[in-house]
Design brief:
153 residues; alpha+beta; Maf protein; 5-stranded antiparallel sheet; 5 helices; elongated
Length: 153
C-alpha cells in the first residue's frame, strides 16, 4: 500500500520528463490494523493508548520517478512504545504534533518520548528512509555523497 501511494505521489508531479521526483508514504501497523492519520483528538488518543506498551511497525514506501520509469523501495521498522497514560496522550495531542502523523505520533518531536526502542530505520519512521532513498538515487546515477563544493581549498 505505501509503495503504491508513494508511486502515485511521485507520478502526480507535473515536471519535465527529465526530472527526478521522489514520493513517499508512511503508515503505522499494529497487529493487522493500519493506523493512518487521526481524524480528531479522540481518535489520536485512542491510537496512542493502543500503541502504549506495545510493539508496532512503521512502513514507509519510497518511489523515485525517473525518465525511464519508477523505482521503489520499502522500509520496515519495529517500534516499541513505553507505557503511556491517558493524561500524557491528551497533553501530547495539545502539542499539535499528532494531528498529521500516521499513528498519531512523530518520533522526531515530542512523540519520541514514547519510543523505548526501535529496530530498523529511524529516518523511515520520520517519513523518508535515507538509506533506501540514497540507494534509489545511486541506482539512478546520482552520488549523494559526491563533493558539491570544495570549501577546503
Amino acid at each position: 500500500m505505501v509503495v503504491r501511494l508513494a508511486t502515485a505521489k511521485a507520478s502526480a508531479a507535473e515536471v519535465e520528463a527529465s526530472c527526478l521526483v521522489i514520493g513517499s508514504d508512511t503508515v503505522v501497523v499494529l497487529g493487522d490494523e493500519v493506523l493512518g492519520k487521526p481524524r480528531d483528538r479522540d481518535e489520536a488518543i485512542t491510537m496512542l493508548l493502543r500503541l502504549s506498551g506495545r510493539r508496532h511497525f512503521v512502513l514507509t514506501g519510497v518511489a523515485l520517478r525517473r525518465p525511464d520509469g519508477v523505482q521503489t523501495a520499502l522500509s520496515s521498522t519495529e517500534v516499541y512504545f513505553r507505557e503511556i497514560s491517558r493524561d500524557e496522550a491528551r497533553a501530547y495531542w495539545h502539542s499539535g504534533e499528532p494531528r498529521d502523523k500516521a499513528g498519531a505520533y512523530g518520533i522526531q518531536g515530542l512523540g519520541g518520548a514514547f519510543v523505548e526502542a526501535i529496530k530498523g530505520s529511524y529516518s523511515g519512521v520520520v517519513g523518508l528512509p535515507v538509506f533506501e532513498t540514497a540507494r534509489l538515487l545511486q541506482d539512478a546515477g546520482i552520488d549523494v555523497l559526491a563533493k558539491q563544493n570544495d570549501h577546503d581549498g
